[in-house]
Amino acid sequence: MTAELWEELIIYLDLAMAFRNRRMLTESDRALLMAGCCASLAGINEVASYCREQVLQRNPAHLVRRWPDFTTALEAEDFQVFIKQVSAKTPIEQYSKKLKELGYSRNFSRQDFDAELDFIAEILRIDAEYLSEL
Length: 134
What we know:
mainly alpha
């Protein structure tokens, strides 16, 4: 996994939580979709599965339901077009600024954890064991 992909994944996860905290669920779902794509590309399938699960929990008819996972979805042309549209609405460069606007911050970093999944689980405020079972 590249450092850039990892950074994007973390920004999208942070943003999903910031939006969720503000009850901006549509925006949270967009961030989760992008995080799911990043996680899938990075081979962190547990995180990709969690992101997909969360989107479908709030919107069972969402386009992503057509595929069993993000890996398969990313191979489909119509999903690729959809993701390009989602990412074009707000480029990743603007998301860091958006986090500040939303007043989101966390008091921990990757270095505070032995494993990537533990760090991600803490961002998502879920049990790392649950995440590893997905």
